[in-house]
Target: Antibiotic biosynthesis monooxygenase
Amino acid sequence: MKLEKAPVLNLFRLEIDLKNHENYTQKVEEYMLNADHALFMQSGHEDQKEYKNYLIESYQDDAAYQQHEDTSQVQQFEHNLKDIVTSQVKVELYPEFISTKPEKLAVTHDNDYVVYLTEIGVQLGKGDEFANAVMKEMKTAVEKENGILAMIAGTIMNQPNEWFSLEVYRTEEAYEKHLKTKHFKKYLEATKYSVESKGLHLLKPDCIVDQGEIFYRP
Model:
């Protein structure tokens, strides 16, 4: 599905006590696998003293997002999280790029997929330079690399120099192979003077839902 208008893109940071993570995983799978209005959803965690979870979701437009929000399953999910989540922050993103493989996904926690979430601070005045390089690299990666399933990038609303990117790989080996490609090395070279800060989060995906063949670029 090629999107002509900017879709809705949200990122949630959730902190969960270790003893509650299995319960959270069960609830998030049930919620995401039945989210009929979503284009893409992914929930994954970093293994630390307190489990840091990241949930990213995308909808075709505001109407689809509102339809989703009005469903009873959203209300039930929010109710279920009250006694599980110790901290929650929602980050609204402006979508800069979305591309996923044609295959549809409904992946549960028992999987070998690898997800990398990257936070990038871009220097003032270098936004267009960085955007052109990263979108070209992501598009090429999804088209040419079998091991990549999705590439998503967005900027924080009203903070265009603060970027997030989400990359979904079939395996860790697919990620390592990606790092050796010409297009990735070219991206690093093209952005070495525009990136001010970078934070990389390796996530173990608990659930991935993808309607397949989604493409958006402003």
Q: What stands out?
A: The chain has one domain: 8-216. The radius of gyration is 17 Å.
